[in-house]
């Protein structure tokens, strides 16, 4: 994980900027030997790269930019007689990567890839957020075996745009959001659009019972 910060001077009006980056890599299968590792270092490998940057627009307001990209797609490295299965999929050991059916990892790892970009506007009375997400649910097609191409692209991918808000009140916090999602080639059949909205209320008992 990498971090960087630029502190503004106490007697100057400047702007404070901070950023933080992180990266992760996972491998599903071990190499047969050193030669195999040198020939196919990215066999059954997935990685995630993320970045977060904080911008201070005023003493009481912050703007946060968040971005992340993940790639765990099955490659076309079929040499040496070894195939490759999607991440979290096993043949000899069915158990693993789950706890009572809950995936212990990134949900998009099974599909193979995702991208995420969001901007948060933080202020004393709450937060507003805008986010875009691209999630691959799966791929198909006989390209690796015979070179043919799926006319619809052979990929099931969801693009979504979400807007969320959080407002602080004396005794309650109000939250709400709206997400529009377009699933292209859902289950490799047709395109599907979905619109989701939510409203939430959280009671702050400690704040409500505290001294006034």
Descriptive notes:
- It is built from 4 helices and 11 strands, in the order E-E-H-E-E-E-E-H-E-E-H-E-E-E-H.
- The protein is mostly beta strands and 212 residues long.
- It is globular and about 60 Å long.
- The two termini are 43 Å apart.
- The longest helix is centred in the N-terminal third of the chain and has 6 residues, at 34-39.
- Residues 6-14 have low confidence and may be disordered.
- The protein has a 9-stranded antiparallel beta sheet with strand order 1-2-3-4-7-8-9-10-11. It has a two-stranded antiparallel ribbon with strand order 5-6.
The computed structural class is: mainly beta
Q: Got a strand count?
A: 11
Q: Which spans of ≥5 residues are poorly predicted at pLDDT below 50?
A: 6-14
Write the H/E string, N to C. EEHEEEEHEEHEEEH
- The order of strands across the largest sheet is 1-2-3-4-7-8-9-10-11
Based on the model shown, name its key terms.
single chain; 212 residues; mainly beta; 9-stranded antiparallel sheet; two-stranded antiparallel ribbon; globular
Present the secondary structure layout:
Elements: E1 2-6, E2 17-27, H1 34-39, E3 45-58, E4 61-71, E5 98-99, E6 102-103, H2 108-111, E7 113-123, E8 126-139, H3 143-146, E9 155-168, E10 172-186, E11 190-203, H4 205-209
Antiparallel strand pairs: 1-2, 2-3, 3-4, 4-7, 5-6, 7-8, 8-9, 9-10, 10-11
Précis, in short:
The chain is mainly beta and 212 residues long.
